Each structure stands twice: as C-alpha cells, then as structure tokens.
C-alpha cells in the first residue's frame, strides 16, 4: 500500500503544479501570448453616443454622434474583476437640452452585451451629469450640469453613493435597425430615471467573475513578464 502511495505522489504533485496553468502555456510555465481566440466580442448601442473604458483603459468610442444610430462591435481581452465605465450622451444642445434645432425634447438609451455574458441591467450604477430642459420648459429652455470627475473611468473611482440604472423596454427606446442585426439577448436598455431630460449619463459596473463560468487565461500582467529570449537591441 505504501509503495502505491509513493508511486502516485509524483503525479499528484504534477497535477497540483499544473492546476491554474493554461493548457496552451509554453513548457516553461510562463503565460503565453494572447490569441484572437482568447478575446470576446463586445456589442454596444447608444442613443446617441458613448465612450467605453474597461479597467481604466479606453476601449471604444462611438464614431457617429447622431443619425444614423449604429452598433459598435469590438474584440476585447477580458480580465476579472472587470470594471466597466461608460459615458453616454443624448444628442442635445448643451445650452437648451433640446435637439432638432431646438424643436424637440429627445430621448435616450444604452445597451451593451459582451461575449462572456456581461449585459446591461438595473444592477449597473448610473448618475446624470447634464439634464434639461429644466421642468420641460421648451419656451425658455435651460440646462443644469455637474462637473464630470476626471477619474470617472478609473477602477478605484468611488461610486458608492450613486443610484442604480433604470431599465427600459425596446418600445420606450425605439432602437433603429442596426440594433436588431446584433445579439443583445438578455441585455436591457438602461438610463437614469428620466430617459428624456437626462442628457449626459455615466454608467459603472464591476464584473467580479466570469458570467458564463468558462475558464479563461489571465493576461492582465503579461506586459511584466520577461521572455526566455529577450529581443536583441538593434545596433546603430
């Protein structure tokens, strides 16, 4: 019996060492370089414009501020916990809060879905930073603003006193055709409490672990790894 235990011990030690190592890591045990297959797809739709940060780094900017409404799709390399920060804006005049040459009070909406199962819903934090026309007064429209913090997208930004986002239906947001051409199943349109008057909104959300339960390599510290054979410096 003792002989059998000793014979199994090396295999047990090897299993313990290899646990947590990615199966595609090089023999040295160092993390491998990420591949496109390690990325997940992010699809974002905003009425009318957004800018997206993940873990404090700029990931995507909506290239079209107003019409046509578009879906932005990018590949991202996830790292958990994952802090998502989004600034979204309705197309409103900064002085009146209205649109279409100050003839109309616009509405808004934001929806996001990642390939790991991350979706927008009422669990997200949300805060308005510009809103109007105050009291829906379109004859003498005016806007109120709060200063936007410089570090609103930072991982350690304190949003503990923020409220939660409010969910809206497709009928309330009325997304345009590109929305229906992409997979947003399970994601909810969100905004603050007033989808018409709140024109600049910041959303924040922390994904603590993988929503779909899949195991993915952690590449967050890859830039600090020293390769086995560092590249040679070029001679001048």
UniProtKB/TrEMBL annotation:
It comes from the Bacteria. Residues 1-20 form the signal peptide. The keyword Signal applies. Residues 214-236 are annotated as: Disordered. Keywords: Signal. Gene3D superfamilies: Galactose-binding domain-like. This is Uncharacterized protein.
């Amino acid at each position: 019996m003792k002989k059998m235990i000793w014979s199994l011990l090396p295999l047990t030690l090897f299993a313990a060492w290899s646990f947590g190592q990615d199966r595609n890591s090089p023999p040295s045990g160092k993390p491998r370089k990420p591949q496109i297959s390690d990325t997940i797809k992010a699809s974002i739709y905003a009425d009318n414009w957004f800018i997206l940060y993940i873990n404090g780094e700029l990931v995507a900017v909506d290239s079209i501020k107003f019409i046509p409404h578009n879906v932005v799709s990018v590949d991202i390399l996830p790292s958990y916990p994952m802090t998502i920060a989004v600034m979204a804006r309705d197309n409103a005049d900064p002085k009146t809060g209205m649109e279409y040459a100050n003839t109309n009070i616009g509405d808004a909406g934001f929806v996001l879905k990642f390939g790991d199962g991350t979706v927008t819903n009422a669990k997200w934090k949300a805060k308005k930073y510009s809103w109007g026309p105050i009291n829906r007064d379109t004859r003498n429209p005016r806007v109120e603003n709060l200063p936007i913090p410089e570090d609103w997208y930072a991982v350690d930004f304190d949003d503990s006193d923020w409220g939660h986002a409010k969910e809206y239906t497709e009928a309330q947001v009325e997304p345009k055709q590109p929305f229906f051409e992409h997979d947003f199943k399970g994601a909810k349109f969100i905004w603050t409490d007033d989808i018409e008057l709140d024109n600049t909104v910041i959303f924040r959300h922390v994904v603590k672990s993988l929503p779909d339960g899949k195991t993915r390599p952690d590449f967050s510290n890859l830039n600090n790894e020293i390769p086995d054979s560092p590249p040679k410096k070029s001679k001048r």
